[in-house]
Amino acid sequence: MEQWNQLRQAGLLPEGLGPPPRALSGFFPMGKPDQTLMFPETDSGGARETLLSIWEELGNLRRMDVQLLDQLCSLALEMGILQEELAAILEEEEEESCEEEEEDEETQREQEEEDLGAPWLATHLPDFEMTI
Protein backbone atom coordinates (compact mmCIF):
# COMPACT_ATOMS: atom_id res chain seq x y z
CA MET A 1 0.00 0.00 0.00
CA GLU A 2 3.08 2.18 -0.03
CA GLN A 3 2.55 2.83 -3.72
CA TRP A 4 -1.07 3.79 -3.06
CA ASN A 5 0.21 6.45 -0.67
CA GLN A 6 2.73 7.61 -3.29
CA LEU A 7 -0.09 7.97 -5.80
CA ARG A 8 -2.09 10.02 -3.33
CA GLN A 9 0.91 12.26 -2.58
CA ALA A 10 1.59 12.73 -6.29
CA GLY A 11 -2.05 13.75 -6.82
CA LEU A 12 -2.68 10.94 -9.30
CA LEU A 13 -5.65 9.34 -7.54
CA PRO A 14 -9.02 10.24 -9.10
CA GLU A 15 -11.29 12.41 -6.99
CA GLY A 16 -13.76 10.50 -4.88
CA LEU A 17 -11.60 7.40 -4.74
CA GLY A 18 -11.18 6.45 -1.13
CA PRO A 19 -8.66 4.16 0.45
CA PRO A 20 -8.27 0.64 -0.89
CA PRO A 21 -10.45 -2.05 0.69
CA ARG A 22 -9.23 -3.54 3.94
CA ALA A 23 -8.91 -6.89 2.24
CA LEU A 24 -6.17 -5.39 0.07
CA SER A 25 -4.39 -3.59 2.87
CA GLY A 26 -1.94 -6.45 3.07
CA PHE A 27 -3.33 -7.86 6.31
CA PHE A 28 -5.36 -11.00 6.15
CA PRO A 29 -5.36 -13.88 8.54
CA MET A 30 -2.83 -16.47 7.62
CA GLY A 31 -2.39 -19.77 9.24
CA LYS A 32 -4.73 -22.63 9.64
CA PRO A 33 -8.32 -21.86 8.78
CA ASP A 34 -9.57 -23.95 11.66
CA GLN A 35 -7.93 -21.42 14.00
CA THR A 36 -10.22 -18.76 12.58
CA LEU A 37 -13.28 -20.77 11.66
CA MET A 38 -15.26 -22.84 14.07
CA PHE A 39 -16.09 -26.34 12.91
CA PRO A 40 -18.82 -28.29 14.62
CA GLU A 41 -17.68 -31.64 15.93
CA THR A 42 -20.31 -33.49 13.91
CA ASP A 43 -19.06 -31.98 10.63
CA SER A 44 -18.10 -34.50 8.02
CA GLY A 45 -14.53 -34.59 6.68
CA GLY A 46 -15.61 -33.82 3.10
CA ALA A 47 -17.19 -30.49 3.99
CA ARG A 48 -14.19 -29.55 6.09
CA GLU A 49 -11.78 -30.34 3.24
CA THR A 50 -13.90 -28.32 0.84
CA LEU A 51 -13.96 -25.38 3.25
CA LEU A 52 -10.18 -25.61 3.73
CA SER A 53 -9.59 -25.56 -0.02
CA ILE A 54 -11.92 -22.57 -0.42
CA TRP A 55 -10.09 -20.77 2.40
CA GLU A 56 -6.75 -21.45 0.72
CA GLU A 57 -8.04 -20.19 -2.63
CA LEU A 58 -9.35 -17.00 -1.00
CA GLY A 59 -5.90 -16.37 0.44
CA ASN A 60 -4.34 -16.92 -2.98
CA LEU A 61 -6.83 -14.54 -4.59
CA ARG A 62 -6.12 -11.86 -1.98
CA ARG A 63 -2.39 -12.14 -2.60
CA MET A 64 -3.01 -11.86 -6.34
CA ASP A 65 -5.26 -8.83 -5.81
CA VAL A 66 -2.57 -7.13 -3.73
CA GLN A 67 0.03 -7.84 -6.41
CA LEU A 68 -2.25 -6.48 -9.14
CA LEU A 69 -3.03 -3.35 -7.14
CA ASP A 70 0.68 -2.76 -6.59
CA GLN A 71 1.33 -3.18 -10.32
CA LEU A 72 -1.47 -0.76 -11.19
CA CYS A 73 -0.09 1.79 -8.74
CA SER A 74 3.38 1.39 -10.25
CA LEU A 75 1.99 1.92 -13.74
CA ALA A 76 0.07 5.00 -12.63
CA LEU A 77 3.24 6.48 -11.12
CA GLU A 78 5.16 5.78 -14.33
CA MET A 79 2.38 7.37 -16.38
CA GLY A 80 2.55 10.47 -14.19
CA ILE A 81 6.28 10.75 -14.84
CA LEU A 82 5.73 10.27 -18.58
CA GLN A 83 3.05 12.98 -18.59
CA GLU A 84 5.47 15.43 -16.99
CA GLU A 85 8.17 14.55 -19.52
CA LEU A 86 5.73 14.93 -22.41
CA ALA A 87 4.59 18.33 -21.14
CA ALA A 88 8.22 19.48 -20.92
CA ILE A 89 8.96 18.24 -24.46
CA LEU A 90 5.86 19.95 -25.88
CA GLU A 91 6.77 23.19 -24.12
CA GLU A 92 10.30 23.03 -25.58
CA GLU A 93 8.95 22.41 -29.07
CA GLU A 94 6.52 25.30 -28.75
CA GLU A 95 9.32 27.64 -27.69
CA GLU A 96 11.49 26.47 -30.60
CA SER A 97 8.67 26.96 -33.11
CA CYS A 98 8.02 30.48 -31.77
CA GLU A 99 11.71 31.31 -32.13
CA GLU A 100 11.74 29.92 -35.69
CA GLU A 101 8.66 31.98 -36.59
CA GLU A 102 10.29 35.14 -35.24
CA GLU A 103 13.45 34.41 -37.22
CA ASP A 104 11.40 33.78 -40.38
CA GLU A 105 9.48 37.04 -39.92
CA GLU A 106 12.71 38.97 -39.37
CA THR A 107 14.29 37.42 -42.47
CA GLN A 108 11.18 38.23 -44.50
CA ARG A 109 11.22 41.88 -43.31
CA GLU A 110 14.89 42.19 -44.24
CA GLN A 111 14.16 40.68 -47.66
CA GLU A 112 11.29 43.12 -48.23
CA GLU A 113 13.48 46.06 -47.23
CA GLU A 114 16.14 44.95 -49.69
CA ASP A 115 13.55 44.52 -52.43
CA LEU A 116 12.19 48.01 -51.79
CA GLY A 117 15.62 49.64 -52.01
CA ALA A 118 16.96 51.73 -54.95
CA PRO A 119 14.83 50.24 -57.75
CA TRP A 120 11.67 51.28 -55.94
CA LEU A 121 12.91 54.85 -55.64
CA ALA A 122 13.79 55.01 -59.32
CA THR A 123 10.36 53.90 -60.48
CA HIS A 124 8.38 55.83 -57.90
CA LEU A 125 9.64 59.36 -57.77
CA PRO A 126 7.87 61.63 -55.37
CA ASP A 127 4.97 63.58 -56.84
CA PHE A 128 5.10 67.22 -55.88
CA GLU A 129 2.57 69.88 -56.70
CA MET A 130 3.49 73.44 -56.21
CA THR A 131 1.14 76.29 -56.13
CA ILE A 132 2.49 79.75 -56.80
TrEMBL record:
Using the UniProt annotation, give all residue ranges assigned to the region (Disordered): 91-132
Native source organism of the sequence: Chrysochloris asiatica (Cape golden mole)
- In this chain, composition skew of type Acidic residues spans 91-116
Name of the featured protein = Uncharacterized protein C19orf69 homolog
Q: Which domain of life is it from?
A: Eukaryota
InterPro entries of this UniProt entry? DUF4530
